Write a sequence for this structure.
């Protein structure tokens, strides 16, 4: 686990507070933190924000509970779900940008046709 993630947890959300908010015990948080499972799993990425960390902990808790998954599997599934969300966001932004570009191009064509 990166030092950055440790600093983030200590600086912004100590394990007791995170455990209370996410309705798990403090040992659950500490075990996963020490195993490196609470960061986003992607090397070279920025540390998780507080809201991303809360979402990740809650997601991992639910996966472990609902599917009787071990912590490593829950973290892997959380990584995959986070990546899917990123791809969906990028895809939506790309579709919007493509649509806006197409509309602008059409407006230019209309202007050029009407000026002839």
């Amino acid at each position: 686990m990166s030092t950055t993630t440790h600093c983030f947890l200590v600086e912004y959300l100590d394990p007791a507070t995170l455990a209370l908010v996410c309705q798990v015990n403090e040992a659950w948080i500490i075990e996963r933190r020490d195993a490196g499972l609470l960061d986003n799993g992607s090397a070279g990425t920025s540390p998780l924000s507080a809201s991303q960390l809360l979402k990740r902990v809650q997601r991992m808790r639910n996966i472990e509970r609902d599917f009787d998954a071990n912590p490593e599997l829950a973290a892997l599934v959380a990584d995959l779900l986070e990546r899917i969300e990123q791809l969906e966001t990028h895809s939506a932004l790309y579709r919007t940008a493509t649509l806006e570009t197409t509309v602008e191009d059409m407006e230019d064509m209309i202007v050029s046709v009407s000026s002839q």
About this structure: The chain is about 75% helix and 0% strand.
